[in-house]
Design goal:
- With about 300 residues, the chain is of the alpha+beta class.
- It has a single domain, classed as Glutaredoxin.
- Helices cover about 45% and strands about 15% of the residues.
- The strands form five sheets. A five-stranded mixed beta sheet has the order 6-5-4-10-11, sandwiched between helices.
- Helix 4 runs parallel beside helix 5.
- The longest helix is centred in the C-terminal third of the chain and has 42 residues.
Length: about 300
């Protein structure tokens, strides 16, 4: 038990530090053997292999293209259902953040959770799904958040494609992995990673809107995303962008300036037109002068 707790603590600490390839490279020689190969290598804009086959929580065989179907963005998580600590922290953090996100799961976005343990089956997947949906406290379609299991080959293929490094530790009997969720576009490309166990509602909403390529969210979301905030991979969060805000301010100032000039121009034209009409009315039309001769005697 002590060994297992020790290893999971190491994994939890490493989750943040291995979020980037640079950090992984710098720490590669310093990590304990049980964390060798564990980490996240971000493969932004690369394609998720949609042909991979899994089994969902109901025992139905599905392929990823059934779940990432060009209609809505997907939050993809790799976990395993008997994980003693980190997986539950990740999924609980995701649920906590999504409770305050005003987007409809199953309508505007989906979640797909895949077990990295090939020995797990639909029964435990269904049990976990029921628990997290109850915690989310939201009525969702059956297809909105599938919990999948699969064989080792397909699990490894998916993990490699999204840069999710993990390994099985023989001593503890557990999987060493990091805490990470991946945002996928409707056509199956990797949009963003969040490597943490705590996810701010604002960050989740903006990441979903970004992954949707403008198909999800309000005009205000788009304005905030493209004109006020930018993703900071080091902080793992959306942060205000001084450059974007200055650019937006300059654009608004230009619109106000040209709008004011246009209004003044119209007022000046209207004023000139009014003065012209008034001057013409005062002088009146010219009248012919009638010449009359004097009376003859």
């Amino acid at each position: 038990m002590f060994v297992r707790s020790h290893i999971m603590l190491l994994v939890t600490v490493a989750a943040a530090t291995l979020a980037t390839p640079v950090a992984a490279q710098l720490l590669a020689d310093e990590l304990p053997a049980e964390l060798d190969g564990v980490g996240i290598v971000q493969r932004l804009d690369e394609q998720v292999p949609l042909e991979l086959e899994f089994v969902d929580h109901s025992g139905k065989t599905v392929v990823l293209s059934d779940l990432i179907d060009s209609e809505r963005p997907v939050i993809l998580t790799l976990n395993y259902y008997r994980c003693p600590q980190l997986c539950s922290l990740t999924l609980n953090g995701l649920v906590d953040g999504l409770r305050d996100v005003d987007l409809d799961l199953g309508t505007e976005y989906n979640i797909v959770t895949v077990s990295i343990n090939p020995d797990e089956g639909p029964a435990i997947a269904a049990q976990n799904r029921a628990g997290y949906l109850a915690a989310l406290d939201e009525k969702v379609p059956e297809s909105a958040w599938p919990f999948l299991t699969g064989n080792q080959e397909n699990i490894d293929a998916l993990a490699k494609a999204i840069g999710f490094g993990y390994r099985f530790d023989e001593l503890s009997g557990e999987f060493a992995h990091t805490s990470s969720i991946t945002f996928v576009t409707p056509d199956g490309r990797i949009s963003k990673y969040m490597n943490d166990v705590r996810f701010l509602p604002r960050d989740l909403r903006l990441a979903i809107v970004d992954a949707s390529q403008g198909k999800v969210g309000s005009l205000m979301d788009t304005l905030l995303l493209f004109n006020c905030f930018q993703w900071d991979p080091e902080a793992g969060s959306f942060v205000p962008s001084a450059w974007k805000i200055m650019r937006l301010g300059a654009g608004i100032s230009a619109i106000v300036l040209f709008g004011g000039i246009f209004v003044l121009f119209r007022l000046e034209r209207s004023s000139r037109s009014g003065r012209g009409k008034q001057n013409g009315h005062d002088s009146g039309p010219s009248r012919p002068v009638l010449e009359t001769g004097g009376m003859q005697s």
